[in-house]
Amino acid sequence: MIYEFTIFALRVGYQIDSWAFFELFFLFSVLFLFPFVCLLLFSCSIWVWCLSPVFCHLYRLRRFWLGPPSPFVLVSFYVFISRMM
C-alpha cells in the first residue's frame, strides 16, 4: 500500500523526502488502518459482551467444583491476556 502511495506521489510530481514519506504513512494510517482498528475493537467488544455470561457461568461452576483459583492460574491468565493485547 505504501508502494502505491509512493507511485502516486511520483506521478503528481511530489518530491519524495522524509516529510513526504511521513505524510504518506500518516495518510495510509488514517485512511486505511484506523477504520480496521475501530472495526476490530467493536467486534471484540461485541464478542466480550456476548460471551461474558458464558464465562461467568463457567467460572461459577469452576469455583463450586474446584474451589478458588490458585495465584499461579491468575498470573498465567493475566500474562496470556496481556500478550494477546
From TrEMBL:
Top-level taxonomic group: Eukaryota
Organism: Medicago truncatula (Barrel medic)
UniProt keyword Transmembrane helix, yes or no: yes
Keywords tagged on the record: Membrane, Transmembrane, Transmembrane helix
Name of the molecule in the record: Transmembrane protein
Keyword Transmembrane assigned: yes
Membrane-spanning parts: 24-52, 64-81
